Amino acid sequence: MTAVDDARALLTSLTDAPIVGVWSAPGRANLIGEHTDYNEGFVFPFAIAQRTAAAVALRDDDVIRVRSTFSPDAVEVSLAGLDAAIAAGGLDWAGYPLGVAWALRQAAPDAETRGVDIALASDVPVGAGLSSSAAIEGAVASALNDVWNAGLDKVALARVGRVAENDAVGAPTGIMDQMASMLGVADAATFLDCRSLDTRAVPLGFADAGLSILVTDTLVEHAHSTGGYRERRDACERGAAAFGVSSLRDLTVDDLPRAEQILDDVTFRRVRHVITENQRVLDTVAALDADGPSAIGDLLVASHASMRDDFEISVPELDLAVDTALSNGALGARMTGGGFGGAAIALIPTGLVPAATAALRAAFAASGFRAPNIFTVTPSAGARRDV
Ligand code: ADP
Ligand code: MG
């Protein structure tokens, strides 16, 4: 059963009204470009095959009712009471779909809002750094955009998802995840300029080259709200302020010698990560265009070293995952996501995946680390209507 089938079945158990359609949106992995988003820089994520689906039926009243396979309880709010419900908070998981409805109505005031039942199902792992949150936002935003005739394009729907997550759920995230989920293309990654929101789907050619992306989820908890994340953002702001620019996006590798002169050592290394990471994203896109995917391995390795040594957001489990993948045939590997835990990715010949997986399990056991979750992800299509 796919998420689409599961959402359909759940909707049938919820209402006798006919199904209007099913929409779905994927999770994402970030190939390269870490902690660059809030510095208005470059990121390069891809949508994965795992998706969240939203099946919709119309209602005769003005109630939005949401139900997910994650929870036995349906949550319902009247359209008239939606603003108050969002302001009151405490909606738990329902804050994502109801927050999307709320944000969509703000973004498209002429939308023909009406009561709906929305049934949600997903095969995106939650909290594994694959953005199940962007998947649920993208599925619900795509569904309501059509059902309510809101007429928003995919970038506008990504913004709706971000507003829902920031202002309704209260999670201070950038827009990378939503853009990747909305705009994904099979066997391509989305080059995103976080300042202009310009995007380009860049072919990856992994399938033709026989390459896979192997994810090692260390299951080490990462909390963005901890001081570590705040400290990194503050250091970036200090660095930009010292140069009199609005964000580190305005600096390039040519500014590094001066940065080393005017910044303290820690701030300099934080700034050097962001500046060089932006350059690595550009270099990765150029290498893919010119030479194909086997040319990007060293950039992934350099990205990891920069996060480990300059930005100091890696942990021993992530370093072990990267080193073990590299010594078992990976062309490149790096931690992905915000850091302090979470997952690492490796670009590796598909035929080597079983042996590398075994080696990773053995290495984690030998180090006394918790057994990781290891699986491949496939660059896949973005949000769409399925039924
Ligand atoms: P992730 O890294 O997976 O995006 P987040 O904490 O950002 O982790 O988002 C996960 C949260 O999103 C879940 O705890 C839940 O509240 C909500 N969520 C994601 N997918 C679903 C779903 N299919 N049904 C209900 N809630 C979901
Ligand atoms: Mg998330």
Please describe the topology of this protein.
Blueprint: H1 3-14, E1 19-32, E2 42-58, E3 63-68, E4 75-78, H2 82-88, H3 95-107, E5 116-122, H4 132-147, H5 154-169, H6 176-183, E6 188-193, E7 199-203, H7 206-209, E8 211-217, H8 227-243, H9 256-262, H10 265-291, H11 297-309, H12 316-326, E9 332-336, E10 343-349, H13 353-366, E11 373-377, E12 384-385
Parallel strand pairs: 3-5
Antiparallel strand pairs: 1-2, 1-12, 2-5, 2-6, 3-4, 6-7, 8-10, 8-11, 9-10
Helix pairs in contact: 3-4, 3-5, 4-5, 4-6, 5-6, 8-10, 9-10, 10-11, 12-13
The chain binds adenosine-5'-diphosphate and magnesium ion.
Question: Would you give an account of this structure?
Answer:
With 387 residues, the chain is of the alpha+beta class. It has 2 domains: 3-202, Ribosomal Protein S5, domain 2; 205-377, GHMP kinase, C-terminal domain (Alpha-Beta Plaits, 2-Layer Sandwich), CATH 3.30.70. Helix content is 43%, strand content 22%. The chain is built from 13 helices and 12 strands. The chain has helices spanning 3-14, 82-88, 95-107, 132-147, 154-169, 176-183, 206-209, 227-243, 256-262, 265-291, 297-309, 316-326, 353-366, and strands at 19-32, 42-58, 63-68, 75-78, 116-122, 188-193, 199-203, 211-217, 332-336, 343-349, 373-377, 384-385. Strands 1, 2, 3, 4, 5, 6, 7 and 12 form an 8-stranded mixed sheet that branches. Strand 3 and strand 4 form a beta hairpin. It is globular and about 65 Å long. The two termini are 15 Å apart. The protein binds adenosine-5'-diphosphate (ADP) and magnesium ion. Magnesium ion (MG) is lined by residues 131, 133. One of its GO terms (cellular component) is cytosol. It holds the Pfam family GHMP_kinases_C. Keywords: ATP-binding, Carbohydrate metabolism, Cytoplasm, Galactose metabolism, Kinase, Magnesium, Metal-binding, Nucleotide-binding, Transferase. Belongs to the GHMP kinase family. GalK subfamily. One of its GO terms (molecular function) is metal ion binding.
